């Protein structure tokens, strides 16, 4: 878990320094956050090598995109990057495994395999109506929804990750669901007339 005695402003200062190309700031950020990221990723993936690769990819992404960070808690931002990298890695491993199995058996099974339920949900969240609706709600509400729904964190874990009280997590989660529902209703197509032409 993330140590609780850290100054979030210090994290933001480190990230600004990383955006300026400061490798020492990146090393400090890594030392500060790698432990809890590794532990949390390890709970979602049993393959230690994949977890290490994802952690490395996360900090490569931080190095490349530190300048794009806007306002959110640095720990939350890091977790979003890491969890997405983990999903990408797991998808890549699954595709590789299917292709290798198809090659061994001589079948084209990998090409016909339907995406998993998780992949369909994630694609819907990223690119479908839900993704568009998520973009319409405020960033602090979106952050709570991503942590609790997409990442599957408990209220306590979300509170610790985002540095806010548990009660605030619950309140924001309720508001986020309400706003998301309203945004989805706005984007829903108007129902057409029933039946066809005679």
Automatic annotation (TrEMBL):
Keyword Chloroplast: no
Domain RNA polymerase sigma-70 region positions: 29-96
Pfam name, any one: Sigma70_r4_2
Keyword annotations of the record: Sigma factor, Transcription, Transcription regulation
Molecular function terms from GO: DNA binding; sigma factor activity
Annotated signal peptide: none
Transmembrane as UniProt keyword: no
Sequence similarity: Belongs to the sigma-70 factor family. ECF subfamily.
Protein name according to UniProt: RNA polymerase sigma-70 factor, ECF subfamily
